[in-house]
Amino acid sequence: MTCDSVDYGSLVWSDDLILGIDQIDEQHRKWIALVQAYQSAVVDGGSAEEIQRTLTAAVAYTESHFDDEQAVMEEAGYPFIDDHLDQHRLAWRRVNGFTAGSPTEDGEETNDLRDSLADFLPQWLMLHINTADRQFARWYRSRSDSAQATAPCAPAAIDDGRVFADIPL
C-alpha cells in the first residue's frame, strides 16, 4: 500500500495504520478484525447466527472504542475533540440505522441492510483512521516529550488543525 493509493474499501491491518498511540493502535487492530469477521460472514454467506454474532461483537466494540478514544482526547485536552466526536456520532447513527431495519417476508431488506453495513463499516473505519484519528495522533505526539517519528503516510495538517477541513463532518 502506498500513501497515494489507500484503498478505503479494503479493510486490512497494516503498519500504514499505526498512529503511534499504543492503546488506540491495539484497539484499531482488534476493531478491524471484528469488522472483517462481520464482512466475511456477510460476503461468504454465513449463517444468520454467525452474521448476528459478528455484527453484535463489532457494534459493541465500536461503542467501547469510541468511549475509550474520547477519554484519551479529553484527558489530553484535544482542541478538535468536538469535530472528532461529531464524526463518531454520525457513524454511530448510520450503524444504528442499518441495524434497525425491519426484515421483509423474503428477507431481501435484511440482506440489503447487511450488505450495506458490510460495505459501510470497513470504508468508514479506514477513512476515519487515516484522517481524523491520524490528525489526533499527530497532535498528541507533538505534545509529548518523547515525540515519536511521524507514522507512515501521515498527511500534513492545515492551519486550523484539521487534515481535510473541506470535508463536511
Report the CATH topology name: Four Helix Bundle (Hemerythrin (Met), subunit A)
How helical, in percent, are the residues?
Answer: 55-70%
CATH-assigned homologous superfamily? Hemerythrin-like
Overall, the morphology is elongated
Name the helix and strand elements from N-terminus to C-terminus, one letter apiece: HHHH
- Helix and strand composition category: mainly alpha
Poorly predicted runs: 1-8, 102-107, 145-152, 154-160, 162-169
The name of the CATH architecture is Up-down Bundle
Specify Rg, calculated over alpha carbons: 17 Å
Whole-number tally of structural domains: 1
Q: Describe the main β-sheet briefly.
A: none
DSSP strand count: 0
Overall mean confidence score, pLDDT: 78
**Cα end-to-end separation:** 26 Å
What portion of the residues fall into strands of 2 or more residues? under 5%
User: How many helical elements?
Assistant: 4
CATH class category label = Mainly Alpha
